[in-house]
Every structure is written in structure tokens, then in C-alpha cells.
Design a protein that fits this description.
This protein is of the alpha/beta class. The chain is 57% helix and 9% strand. The longest helix is centred in the C-terminal third of the chain and has 27 residues.
């Protein structure tokens, strides 16, 4: 196994050496022993055919979870795989606070080390559609998280003959949540978990009420679920999380249309901003369905789905409005951190310049097309190309691209990067830009590989293997090998060279024992 992995890593180093630019993708993980690790992928291209390669470099243990420790590990990995910092053009992570923090995160530190790098964080988590860090400054959000956690731990694993409880149980299976694991479950950013709580709410109230007399936990949970703020916060999450689910699905598309990235992110941000002043659909429907019943003391009681809500009044509604606005502001900031406007402009500019289907239909309209976008790209990547030459070549480049309207964005970029292509020789600066665009870490293949690592790591408890062996297992499972393509002679050569010193040591020990 080690010999096969050695061959695969040799191929990785050769591939990374040949690729003009590299994309880095990190995922910080914490196992049941609270050991932090960094899962690392790279994107690269072959100059021979312009094909994209996604390589799993490994799972690397971290001394601590602070940004400096992660940054030091990143530098070690780049050095070990002989990746020059100047070739790193994209950096993407799972969007954790240490990774994405603008002032002191790993991304900012990496920019000082890799002068070309642009940082963006596509939403690649199957379960955490929105980073839980988005809610940490909202005090009630932490309490809500604990309530949800208690409900799932109390009823999620029970086999009760009720559809609502079957749904609670299904969430654990569908989302791969292990309640026995020491890791915190981020229920608050999991749409399926929140939807199920909303769907099960009336049934949960009835069951908790029936168990309240003999269970203090059930009594406490019943009271919390009846509170206006709990139901209202659930509805606000149901208005927020689907926006991130759509983004999540969009970024899993393999042949992603780059021209759509800026519009869909901008539209998502605008929708979230609008919810600060006008309620989202779910929250507004909840308010409309509240039934007010004045009592003898001229105070109102509010009912929802036949249940009397606790702590429900106009004053509570006004106080909750502040929580809703704070939550939405944090979520909007999280989206901006994942997709900085400057990077969105760069991505949109790539689409304008290199997508034949975006070009005008006639030569008469092509003169001024893309000039502003090209200037932005030339400014951003000025130290890896010749801006003046690219500007002079742009008129001819556009005419040729117009004649290639049948090609897709990726097809044109591949044609430019291909070392035997006429366009490769004719437009050297556009070849550089095309190579940068091709290693952008996006698409379903990358998403599936990241998900595969997560799934295999969860199964580790069933394997009696060391951390080093785990890395080998992960590498073989994720990156191959395809048996008919593996160079077994290299693997055998490595295995034999590794065996020789061990054999000599063993023979020496045997001779010493004989004497």
C-alpha cells in the first residue's frame, strides 16, 4: 500500500510541477480525540491537453487550531510537494472563521506568501450549508442550538410509531450524524434538521407535555418549545437556510457557468438584506397565523397551531426583531467573507473575456466589448503576463473567439492552454489567464472528493489502522489508482529499495544472535 501511495505522490509532484498554476483547497477537521487536522486538495492542469486534475495530498495533523499554526503547516505542505508559492492562484476552504477571517485568518497570511492568490470559499459542505460561526454573536442562537441538540438526543434515536419521530430519526441517518461522537453538531445551520423540528413541533409539544410530570428534562424542553422566540427563530432560519442550499447546489455543478456566480451571490445577499426590513415568507406566515385571545385581565394570549405560546407579546415581538436583524447582518457578512466583491469581479471578468457564448453576435458590436473586464484582469495578474501586449492583442483575440461561438468557456481555455494549439502560440498572455481560470477550485468532482474524505474518516473507528496508514487508505480510495494505468514497476522499485535496509538490519541482528 505504501509503495502504491509513493508512486501516486510522485505523480502528484510531477503534475504540480508541470502545471503553470495551482489551486489549494483546505478542510479543517477535528476527530473524536479532538485532534485537529488539515485535509488538503490541489487543482492543477496539464499543459499537454489542458485537462484538470484534482489531487488529494493528505490529512495533516495540526499542533493547534490557530491561524499561525495552520499557515505554518500550509507552508510545510507546499515545500514538501515542491509547489512554488508564486504558482498558487486560488485558495478555498470550508469557510471556518480561522480560514476566512479577513484580518487575521489563514487567507490573509497566505496572500503575503503567495502573491497571486485569490481567496474565495465556495459552499462545499453537504450538511453545514451556512457556517455556524455566523450565529455566534447572537445570544439566543446559542440557546436555540442547545435546545435543538437536546431534542434530537432525547428523541432522535427512539423508535416511536409516529411520522414526526421517524423524521427526527431519519435526520441522523441522512446527515450522517453520530450522537455518540464528541464533536458538536451544528443543528442551527442544517436545513433538514430545522425543517424537521418545525414539522414535528405540535407533536413534540404533546409528547413533552405527557412526559413532563416524570421528566424534568421533558418539562424544561416543553417550556422552551412553547416560547414565542423559539418558534419565531425557527421560522427565520427557514427563510435563511434555503438561500444557502441553492448556493450549495449551484456550486456543485460540474460545468459551472462563471457568468452566473456574481449574479447568484449578489441576489442571495440582496434577498437576505431585504429580510431585515421586510419579513421572510415563513416568518410572516407565522405572524399571520398567530391567534390573539384577550383574557379577563385585558391581556392577550397568543395561540399557534392550537398551542398557547409563552412569553408572547408585542414587546417580545419588538425585542425579537433586534435578534432577527442581528442574525441577518451576521449571515450577510459571512456571505461577503466567502465571496469578496473583488474576487467576484475577477471571476465575472474571466467569463466576459473567455466565454464565446457571452460575446456579441456581430463584428460591429465587438469593438469595445470586454475592455473594462480585461483591464481588471491585467491589473490583477500584471506580474505574470505583459499587460501592454495583451491589450494590443485583444482586438484580434475577440475576432477569433467570435468565430468559435460553438465552444464553451472551458473549451476555449483548454484550447489556449494546449501547448500544440495555434492560439497558445498566438496569444501568450491570454494563455496565462486561461490557465489561471482552469484551476479555479469549483465543481462536483471536487465536492464529491471532499465528501468522500469525510465519509471515510467517519468509518475510521471500524478500522484498526494508524494515522499514517489512514492517509494511505484515503489516498488510494480517493485518487485511484486505476490498475491498468498504474506503473507497477515504480511501485516494486520503491518497495524493493525500502526492503533492502530492513533486510540488512535483520540479517545483522541474526548474525549477532548467532555469535
Amino acid at each position: 500500500m505504501a509503495a502504491i501511495v509513493k508512486v501516486l505522490h510522485i505523480e502528484d509532484r510531477n503534475r504540480l510541477k508541470d502545471s503553470p498554476f495551482i489551486g489549494l483547497v483546505f478542510d479543517e477537521t477535528i476527530d473524536i480525540t479532538e485532534q485537529r487536522s488539515l485535509v488538503v486538495f490541489t487543482t492543477s492542469i496539464s499543459p499537454c491537453d489542458g485537462q484538470l486534475h484534482i489531487s488529494f495530498l493528505g490529512k495533516f495533523e495540526l499542533c493547534s487550531g490557530d491561524a499561525s499554526s495552520i499557515f505554518d503547516k500550509v507552508k510545510d505542505i507546499l515545500n514538501d510537494f515542491q509547489i512554488p508559492p508564486k504558482k498558487v492562484s486560488w485558495f478555498s476552504t470550508d469557510g471556518t472563521s480561522l480560514m476566512a477571517d479577513r484580518q487575521s485568518g489563514v487567507g490573509e497570511k497566505l496572500k503575503s506568501f503567495c502573491p497571486l492568490v485569490s481567496e474565495f470559499h465556495s459552499i462545499s459542505h453537504r450538511r453545514s450549508l451556512l457556517p455556524s460561526e455566523s450565529f455566534t454573536s447572537v445570544e439566543y442562537a446559542r440557546k436555540y442550538q442547545n435546545i435543538i441538540d437536546a431534542i434530537y438526543r432525547l428523541y432522535g434515536s427512539r423508535n416511536l410509531e409516529n411520522q414526526s419521530f421517524n423524521e427526527l430519526h431519519n435526520i441522523l441517518n441522512v446527515c450522517g450524524i453520530d450522537l455518540n461522537c464528541a464533536r458538536i453538531v451544528h443543528w442551527i445551520s442544517n436545513l433538514r434538521a430545522v425543517e424537521t423540528i418545525d414539522f414535528s413541533w405540535p407533536t413534540l409539544i404533546l409528547l413533552l407535555e405527557s412526559e413532563s410530570a416524570k421528566s424534568p428534562i421533558a418539562n424544561g424542553l416543553c417550556l422552551e418549545l412553547k416560547k414565542f422566540w423559539f418558534v419565531a427563530f425557527t421560522k427565520v432560519l427557514l427563510d435563511i437556510l434555503p438561500i444557502f442550499q441553492k448556493l450549495n447546489l449551484f456550486f456543485q455543478i460540474e460545468d459551472l457557468d462563471l457568468s452566473m456566480i456574481n449574479p447568484i451571490v449578489t441576489a442571495s445577499h440582496a434577498t437576505l438584506q431585504a429580510q431585515k426590513s421586510t419579513n421572510g415568507q415563513n416568518f410572516q406566515e407565522f405572524l399571520n397565523e398567530l391567534n390573539e385571545h384577550p383574557d379577563e385581565d385585558n391581556e392577550s394570549r397568543f395561540y399557534y397551531k392550537g398551542v398557547e405560546l409563552v412569553d408572547c407579546s408585542q414587546a417580545q415581538l419588538q425585542d425579537f426583531e433586534l435578534i432577527k436583524i442581528s442574525c441577518l447582518e451576521n449571515v450577510c457578512k459571512s456571505l461577503q467573507d466567502r465571496f469578496p466583491s473583488s474576487v467576484l469581479k475577477v471571476i465575472s471578468s474571466f467569463s466576459v473575456v473567455f466565454n464565446p457564448k457571452s460575446y456579441p453576435s456581430s463584428l460591429d458590436d465587438i469593438c469595445s466589448y470586454g475592455e473594462m473586464e480585461l483591464r481588471l484582469l491585467l491589473q490583477h495578474f500584471s506580474h505574470v503576463l505583459v499587460p501592454e501586449r495583451a491589450s494590443n492583442d485583444f482586438a484580434l483575440f475577440k475576432r477569433i473567439v467570435l468565430s468559435l461561438s460553438h465552444l464553451s468557456f472551458r473549451d476555449l481555455c483548454v484550447k489556449l492552454v494546449h501547448s500544440n494549439s495555434e492560439m497558445h502560440e498566438l496569444f501568450p498572455d491570454f494563455t496565462v489567464l486561461a490557465a489561471v481560470a482552469l484551476v479555479m477550485p469549483l465543481g462536483s468532482v471536487l465536492f464529491n472528493k471532499i465528501s468522500q474524505v469525510k465519509e471515510l474518516q467517519k468509518e475510521r473507528s471500524n478500522w484498526e489502522i494508524t494515522a499514517g496508514d489512514l492517509n494511505d487508505v484515503l489516498k488510494i480510495a480517493i485518487d485511484g489508482p486505476v490498475l491498468n494505468e498504474l506503473d507497477f514497476s515504480k511501485a516494486i522499485h520503491y518497495f524493493e529499495n525500502r526492503r533492502e535496509p530492513e533486510s540488512l538490519v535483520s540479517e545483522g541482528r541474526w548474525e549477532a544472535q548467532s555469535v
